Amino acid sequence: MKKFSQFAAVILACTPGFVVASEARFNLKEIAPGIFVHQGQMVAERTPANMGDQANIGFIVGEKCVATLDAGGSMKVGLLLREAIKKTTPKPICYVINSHVHPDHMFGNPAFKADNVTFIGHERLAKGAAARSNNYTNSLKRDLGDVAEGSELTPPTKTVKAGETLDLDLGGRILKIQAWPVGHTDNDISVFDEQTQTLWLSDLLFIDHVPAMDGSIPGWLKVIADLKKIPAKMVIPGHGPVTAPWPSAIEPEERYLAKVADGVRKALKDKQTIQEAIEGVAWDEKDKWQQFEQFHRRTVTATYAELEWEE
Amino acid sequence: MTWTKAANMNVLAVFNQSLMRGIVACLLGLSVAALAADPIPDGNQSEVWKKVRQSYFEGRTIVEDVDGKVVALKAPKRAEDAATVPVQIKTGVNQSKDRFIQKLYLFIDANPSPVAAIFTFTPESGRADIDTRVRIEAYSHMRAVAEMNDGKLFMATHYIKAAGGCSAANGTLPDYANFQPKLKFKVDPNVEKDQPTLAQLMINHPNASPLVKDQVTHLFQPAYYVRTINVSYAGKQIMTADVDFSISENPNFRFYFTPSGEGELRAEVVDTKDVKVESFVKITPTAGKT
Q: Which of residues 119-138 of B touch A (CB under 8 A)?
């Protein structure tokens, strides 16, 4: 009997029916006319059960076609997003916009290959994806096993240069894709929907989940200063609630990043070693964020390694 | 197979089997979850260490310095960023002409190249302490072996839980084709004569590991790292280091020197492209307490 249930579970997990059956778990909210966002799970670990569904992802529907906002943490999550789009609108999917290279946002790309989409990303996205793919794929397989199957960091087919903006026309709806200098990563882009004044920031904005830094804190703080000039009514963060008011939603992140930068600069001035800085900087932020322990030490380490070259 | 293991297999069989395939395919070859629960393995049984020990210290006695009287190794038990793991080697020997540490070996058993660094020191070093940052590819024993001028060997061991540091791409990826390494010294402006003085040498260099695979070209990133470091003061050797990509991006070393008068603290660094960079800082020590 046990053998049979295992067998059944394998069959279920390997058929498209499994995806449809779990659709109930794929929450989706229309946060503004034609903008749909799925909230990822705030969990520390990827498991076969959560399929790596950790990031907020979604899509925007125009008169002509649909653009996705990221693709999710695995091919399976990408397929769920695709199903959700197909249930929402008969319009074709023309763009997959990748906000940055991180696996929880990008591994679902292959789910849209058959739609003949244009993959949009930062000019540095392809290079980052190629260099990280091996490590990211190995660790996804370690965490998800067979559920990881098909997941790939499909590179962009159309890129945007850092500091520049690209207009994407979905038919009666213009999306402004802006590529940023090094900040959260070295390949972040944001998407501004002019019609509803909604700004999709992905991981340029963390809410509740501690900011995971993979670029440069001084760079990120500069990007935030520029982001704040964008006259958005509402923003979509990469983690946390699906929408938040602008620009107040970015204040906790800005405070945290500034505190880490200032703390590390002080540690350097006091001739502290990197280890002393890791143990001492910004620990009063601990109770204000989820997944703090998992990311904070890493952020301080990288910031120390960068800032010791200042002066 | 024990009963508990068998029961566990039944409940999680589907995912365990698939997980196992992923794990076997994985570069680490180790399950993080399994290791987290396991006690620290016996460092003396490490196959890599047996080989390294044979080739570097054949037949010689190595005293395990559990009290850190000669050498102690400080590093975190678990490192979130396996590509930048701080390591401190503290020594308990006042470097003098009669008794000094002449070599310090840093081994990381589970790294693709377990010999992370070999440092040499002189009586002019003052102290043979070293502070640096390393990459860790898998859960591993790390060892600092101090070799005295009389040939005696002392070892400090530390077990670290960190993984993937050598195969992780550097965070930001500038174009390294025309890269020119840069050096920077940091020394306290108040230097006292004949006192061991802390100095920091920072090297701006990708120190690229050849374990990073490019998934488009299917090629591994070419190795490009700092190979040798040579530090002198007033023409006398202070410290040399033979290193490789086990040292983190932008290699960084804290070490001591003892100035007996005015002089230049000078560093010469050579990388795997045979690019040589030099830098120096002028030191004028004050008379000090003596």
A: 131, 133
- From CA A256, how far away is CA A16, in angstroms rounded? 43
Query: Strands B252-257, B263-271: parallel, antiparallel or unpaired by DSSP?
Result: unpaired
B187 interfacial to chain A (CB closer than 8 Å):
no
User: Which tokens in the block code for residue B56?
Assistant: 């570097």
* Minimum Cα–Cα distance from A276: chain B residue: B86
Q: What is the ipTM of this complex?
A: 0.73
Q: What are the φ and ψ backbone dihedral angles of A123, each rounded to 5 degrees? A: -60, -25
Min Cα distance B64 → chain A (Å) is 25
Q: Which residues lie across from B64 on neighbouring strands?
A: B155
What residue type is A253 in one-letter code? E
Over residues B217-274, the pLDDT tens digits come to: 777 877 889 999 999 999 999 999 999 999 999 999 999 999 999 999 999 999 999 9
Running DSSP on this structure, what letter comes out for residue A183? Answer: S
Residue whose C-alpha is closest to residue B14's, from A232, A14, A62, A220? A14
Q: Which run of H or E residues covers position B131?
A: strand B130-134
Directed axis angle between helix A217-227 and helix A251-269, to 10°?
150
3-class DSSP assignment, residue B137: coil
Residues near B164 by beta carbon (within 8 Å), at least 6 away in sequence: A135, A139, B27, B28, B82, B83, B137, B138
Report yes or no: A155 and A130 within 8 Å, Cβ to Cβ. Answer: yes
pLDDT in tens, A30-63: 999 999 999 999 998 899 999 999 999 999 999 9
Do the strands B62-64 and B153-160 form a parallel or antiparallel pair, or are they unpaired?
parallel
Nearest chain B residue to A308, by CA = B202
Kindly state the helix (H) or strand (E) to which residue A155 belongs, with its residue range.
none
Size of interface A-B (CB pairs under 8 A): 124
**What is the distance in angstroms between the Cα of B14 and the nearest Cα belonging to chain A?**
6
* Chain B residue closest in CA terms to A124: B173
Distance, in Å, from the CA atom of A52 to the CA atom of B25, rounded to the nearest integer, reads: 19
Give the Cα separation of B249 and B225 in Å (integer).
9
- CA A49 vs. chain centroid, Å, equals 20
